[in-house]
Amino acid sequence: MTANTELLTVPQVMERLQLGRTAVYDLIRSRQLTSLTLGRARRIPAHALTDFIRTRLDQEAAA
Question: Which residues form the Helix-turn-helix domain (predicted)?
């Protein structure tokens, strides 16, 4: 699986962003972080996490 198609679990995203579960689900709920549901499992595409970080960095640089 390439980085473009890699799917991350919520705990993996929590670890990478150093955020709690509620904060990650808040990002998903507010559509700042794209995710998909497979059955009952929530997955975040790796590229969506990269895009989120890039967007936040751009916002910080513009502020």
Answer: 7-56
